[in-house]
Design a protein that fits this description.
Structural class: alpha+beta
Bound molecules: zinc ion
Order of helices and strands: HHHHEEHEHHEHEHEHH
Helix content: 55-70%
Number of strands: 6
Radius of gyration: 50 Å
Number of helices: 11
Strand content: 5-15%
Largest sheet: 4 strands, antiparallel
Length: 310
């Protein structure tokens, strides 16, 4: 009885063991196949390579391919910020470029009274004439706004050349200052009359053209501004052509800029100024502009053209 009971129980347990083992095999088989392809991607690569017959070359080429691809990718990434660095330096250089031309602009106000241009092509305006206020230096009229630097210049010229006489005595003198429109018209008319006397039968137009070469047409003389003066080295030398040889005149040419004056009609700029070489005619333009013009050897017209071009 007990043996049969035992054998029956043993048969039941054997059945369950078999069933369980079958189930386990089934579970292992299902999960095993599911797990295999996951890990099999790594193994499938050498498997296919082994099928191709190049088991070592295939993985060797894929591995360096990955490292080669990734290494240039990282070098491209490092070169990319390298190109962005010069990109930031380029706008840095453009910023000072834009700041460089800006400072000269506010430095000079070209409409300032002391920068007024009068020459054969630029007549003095009636509006400007109305603003002129005059005073006298050794009997000649000049603009009140430049009389102090003018007096200082004449004084310093005398002091600096006291010992070098060479027939020159006393202080340098202003022999021509401000001229009114009427004065300039009288000068011009006198010139025309002299030409007509010297050349009888000359036409009015020809006489006018000849006169204009020696005397400024009324309205175009810088002397009408009150900012121009003719200076002779001393009282004995009213022959203006002799001035270029005089020590005091040379001192004025070298030092006039310190007082705000320029030698207005240089020898090498007659085409630009429209006026012959005049080593006695000085024009007030202020110390800054005078220093720039005299140090660079340019004339007022050239300086103005540069400023207007900016
Ligand atoms: Zn002299
Ligand atoms: Zn003059």
């Amino acid at each position: 009885m007990s043996k049969r009971k035992n054998s029956a129980a043993a048969q039941v347990t054997r059945f369950f063991i078999v069933l369980l083992s079958v189930c386990l095999i089934g579970i292992i088989a299902i999960f095993g196949f599911k797990l295999l392809p996951v890990g099999g991607d790594d193994t499938s690569a050498p498997d296919t390579s082994s099928v191709l017959g190049e088991p070592t070359k295939a993985p060797d080429t894929t591995v360096p391919d990955i490292t080669v691809v990734t290494s240039p990718d990282t070098t491209v990434d490092t070169t990319a910020p390298d190109t962005t660095v010069p990109d930031t330096t380029v706008p840095d250089t453009t910023v000072p470029d834009t700041t460089v031309p800006t400072p000269p602009e506010p430095t000079y106000d070209l409409s300032a009274w002391y920068l007024t241009l009068v020459n054969p092509w630029n007549k003095l305006s009636v509006e400007y004439i109305d603003t002129i206020e005059l005073t006298k230096v050794n009997g000649k009229q000049v603009d009140v706004r430049m009389v102090e630097p003018l007096k200082q210049m004449l004084n310093d010229c005398y002091e600096a050349n006291k010992t070098t006489k060479n027939g020159c005595e006393g202080k340098p003198l202003v022999c021509s200052g401000f001229r009114s429109q009427a004065t300039q018209e009288n000068l011009f008319t006198k010139k025309i009359n002299n030409i007509k006397k010297a050349k009888p039968g000359i036409s009015d137009d020809e006489a006018y053209a000849l006169a204009a070469k020696e005397v400024a047409i009324p309205g175009t003389s810088e002397h009408q501004l009150g900012l121009a003066v003719d200076i002779v080295c001393c009282v004995e030398h009213y022959n203006l052509d002799a001035q270029k040889t005089k020590v005091r005149q040379q001192w004025l040419i070298d030092n006039c800029h310190k007082y705000g004056f320029i030698l207005r009609y240089p020898a090498d700029k007659t085409d630009v100024t429209g006026i012959i070489y005049e080593p006695w005619h000085y024009r007030y333009v202020g110390v800054e502009v005078a220093t720039e013009i005299m140090s660079r050897g340019i004339c007022f017209e050239e300086w103005l053209a540069e400023q207007k071009a900016q």
